[in-house]
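Duplicate of earlier report; NAD(P)-dependent dehydrogenase, short-chain alcohol dehydrogenase family input re-posted below.
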Amino acid sequence: MENIKVKESEAQTRQPGDQFKMNPEPLTIRKNYRGSNKLTGKVAFVTGGDSGIGKSAAIHFAREGANVAIVYLNEDKDAEATENEIKAEGVKCLLLKGDIKDEEFCKRAINKTIAHFGKLNILVNNAAMQFPTEAIENITSENLHKTFVTNIYAYFYIAKAAISHLQKGDTIINTTSVTAYRGSEHLIDYASTKGAIVSFTRSLSKSLAPKNIRVNAVAPGPIWTPLIPATFSGDDLENFGKDVPLGRPGQPSEVGPAYVFLASEDSSYMTGQVIHINGGEIIGG
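Output:
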């Protein structure tokens, strides 16, 4: 993908954005990706699973044989499209519409998943918000609160609700970001939540290690998802992702397989770790 251009009629004005409006639309899974039953019989729960990275993880899980529950805010068209793609893989899908900033909704979503599928094996905390600003003085209290409650409080809400249902060999995967490691001058609050997710992952992994429940994370760099045209415009959108060594933004299809790896026995000796998928940017940790 060399250039990103959003038509005027497709401009996005609210988060987390609609994938069906994007031009070009993100690639969710490679045509030549072949499942090998790595997750057959498993049940996965993915927040922000209607689009972007969350959708890619969900579709990859489905191709590997897992049934999937996806949580989304209000993007019905994207969610229904994802549901159809998951079912096309020969597995089941449960749509859970609601706001993860609400702890009671998070509890209900987990309980509905258990009631529908009878179990839960893979928990993916992924949904996020961001409000770019050029200076800390411009970060409003309202946006600061939304960013933290969505990006890290909800991870606590969902993990707390899910823990009692997870068994030996089950997994939790959190989506952090390259910004947690290198910072971001125009996403100070967002980067701060992503740093918190790294610490959350490491701390929860130690807490759950005695139960053999593994907790890891993925730290994407610039990936072409609905959150991008919903938060950037003009030159920022046109040049998105061009400053990494590979010279382009990544596709969700290039991130999804990492979630399969962390959810499957392939990563059975990994916990508390972060996989970096960022186009070649060298960062610590």
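Residues 39-277 form a domain with the Rossmann fold fold (CATH 3.40.50.720).

Merging into the original ticket.
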